[in-house]
Amino acid sequence: IARRQRQMCIRDRPMAYIELSLFGGASDAVYDKLTAAICDAVSAETGIAPANIYVKYEEAEHWGWNGSNF
Predict the structure, then answer these.
(1) What is the pTM of this model?
(2) Cα–Cα distance between 64 and 40 in angstroms, integer?
(3) What does the buried/exposed string (b/e) look like for 43-54 if buried means 16 or more CB atoms within 10 Å of the residue's CB?
(4) Which residue of 5, 27, 35, 61 is most buried, as measured by CB atoms within 10 A?
(5) CA distance 49 to 15
């Protein structure tokens, strides 16, 4: 029941889900700072509360561009 109530409350508020791919990786401290900056920027532009902004990171070792890979 608690899960249902939480989902119902979330539906009534605007939310954002952001996926970010990084070439390589970063430390936990860098991810913390990046998440704070992203949440602040998205909140300032959209009015969505930072508590309703979710950021997913993906580290990629290989990227392709202009016919070749890095």
Answers:
(1) 0.74
(2) 30
(3) beeeebeeebbe
(4) 35
(5) 8
